[in-house]
Specification:
With 511 residues, the protein is an alpha+beta fold. It has 16 helices and 35 strands. The strands form 16 sheets. A five-stranded antiparallel sheet has the order 1-2-3-4-5, with no helix packed on it. The chain starts with 12 loop residues before the first strand and ends in a 19-residue tail after the last helix.
Length: 511
Amino acid sequence: GAFQTGSCWPASVALDVWGWSLSCCSDQVTMSQPCKELVLGSAVGELEEAAVGLPAHSKRGASSVGELEIREVIVDEKPFQCGVCEKAFKRAWELFSHEVVHNEERPFRCDLCQASFKRHSDFKSHRLVHTEERPFRCELCGKRFKRSSNLQEHRRIHSGERPFRCPRCAKSFKTPYELQRHALTHCAEKPFKCADCGKDFPTSNALLLHQRQHCDDKPHVCGVCGKKFTYGHSLKVHERVHTGDRPFVCPLCGKGFKQSNALSSHERVHTGERPFVCKTCGKAFKQSSYLVIHERAHTGERPYKCEVCGKAFARWSSRLAHHQRSHTGERPYKCPECPKAFKGSSALLYHQRGHTGERPYACPQCGKAFKRSSLLQTHQRVHTGLRAFECAQCGLTFKWASHYQYHLRQHTGERPYRCPACPKAFKNSSSLRRHRHTHTGERPHACPVCGKAFAQATNLRQHQRVHTGERPYACPQCGKTFTHSSNLLLHRMPHNPRPPSLASPSYPCVA
């Protein structure tokens, strides 16, 4: 039956949890199974993670969990074995936590919304959703928190304190989670492989955390859109999409972020630090995750596959998740200024900059500003001339991975983007998008001056030059300017049938 979650248990309780005998006394907890015994001085935090809720009076005999002494009587190296899949563990609480995956029982039930949970810790985190009480207040900015630990982490934003130092490179971090993530960058060896997807991890704990993603158990549900999450922290971050809350503020420029690691990454904009370097082309990145994704451009690895159409992607969040909405038609991110809706939160953010005119990413060489950091990075290759992507078949080099991938299809003849309305197929997604307008008649790009609408954004930009008088294409020989690059090419075309390139100065002007 379901556990009692609101009442106090008697001083001595005996439970049978998945074949284990567990006894609670005033000063210790004893779990036993034939040939295996573990005696704990009330290691309640670990037991709670294993879905066992203990009363407060079972913790007598130790002033804090940090002082509790754990003694294990170990028969072999991994004496605790799962009866379902035979996986073995060093510690009993690891087995308890693992066995929740196989057990369908959800003994911890919320009396306010009827949500049920396998773990007591998940139940406790969920209860905070129903209460608006935030008793912990920051004395500097007035922001309130539900947990004292969250307030302590928040205070470090004001103080700049980074108490968690890496023993290998002397870098320091605001939270232990940031330090843990950073420590993985020093691990060249990744001996722990996920049996479900084949991904490798440097530690068994990292693997265990990852494996929860493959589990169907997602107890944390968003009250606004119903999206489910494996971890309470993931739900908390997601809820900021709806609330707009950006609690992590840069002390230098005041920009706010939804996650602490996003703030840490942003701070490198001010310092210029790019500690993660690609061994193939030497490109450096602010985050290790960016480096991992970038390296797939060299290897061609696309580990994330769409179950509907089989298309594979190099990254999960912004690629596969976005693509899957093309099958469902879901557009959950709505613009508050106009009726437009978007498949991803980043697409909404970029769209909103069209209303505000904000271009926060400026080129340090020429001052040109962009709406997205990726557009700035692409632009900067104009100045550096870096061509990191080389074709193994013909030796051509490319500045951008997308151009490299497109070029490879010239050799293979592959046309992976197929029109659902006719038999036509295309080498890139943008060509397919343009083609589909011929079926729908849609002209989504309207001129704000005269109202004329166009099927493609490039056609709108060219049209707007009629109103602005802009003529960006100049002949390097005579200085004559043009609104379209094609007109410049015609102007410079000699009687030679071979057309010139825009950069070539070797052709005479044609009057």
